[in-house]
Specification:
Blueprint: H1 2-11, H2 22-48, E1 55-59, E2 65-69, H3 70-81, E3 87-97, E4 100-109, H4 115-134, E5 140-149, H5 154-172
Parallel strand pairs: 4-5
Antiparallel strand pairs: 1-2, 3-4
Amino acid sequence: MVIRLANAAFCRLPFSCEQFDVESFTTGLLAGLALMLIVGLIVHLCMKGSGACKTIHIIDGENGDFTITSSAVRSFLQRIVADYPQLDLNSIALKNTRNGLTLDLYLNVLPETDLVTLRKTLRERIYAELENKLGIAEQIKKVNIDIEGFDAKAEVIAKHNRGILNEAEDEEN
């Protein structure tokens, strides 16, 4: 039935019906569908594989649940990093991995920054603040600090940090 419909449709075209090959048409149609399926699957896997975490959800038992969004965590961490005058925060990523949540900080630092000391103190401060103020340190299994450059400028960092700290003061008032 399908082959007859295809023949009828193509026989009306300007070329003759003897040139139409049903097997080649079917093969081409199936190859095109398979290609579209493969491309769709690749796009789906790429989108799903990012592991980006939108919220952190904590079940507090009978008293209710606690949910905090990744943008709220991002704002919270911007204020912590703003206390370090040698750091310029480029971006933050909260990812869901097999082992739990991973927090990635992407920083630009001043050329004279002591990274050995900074790594340790920044990580300790982040974990302490996440536990004391948000209560989510258990969920964050790793804090990765990625230095993207040693070309930060002190004036730009100071201006950026002032803006973040001023926003925090405005919200408190």
